[in-house]
Amino acid sequence: MNETERRILREQYLKNRVTRVDAKVNNKDVLGKEDMLNRPRHQTNCPSFRECPIDYKCLNYNPTYLECRNCTLHEADGICHKKDIHNDRVFEMMITRPRLDLDAENEKRMQREKKDEL
Asked: Most buried residue, 22, 56, 78, 95, by most Cβ within 10 Å?
């Protein structure tokens, strides 16, 4: 891949990437469809409860434990049954991280070289 192809690819990426949008919301506005104070975490007092950030249900449910089978969440369908796709690797991909732009330094250097040639 030469410099021009790399530059074109980078321009397409910058044009198509999703930008972050910050919205100001009043504290009184309700954004969720459900009651935010009636989640499974409010229905149990289990010390091993771990909330799934996608569907807000218990991720630590283990049917071999008697405590889990007697839990109120087991009866009220408060258990996350999608553990194969709701795992730590997926949660880490949901978190955005700052990226280092290595191409910007190369572009600055190329512009300096062009100026020096002129």
From this structure: 78
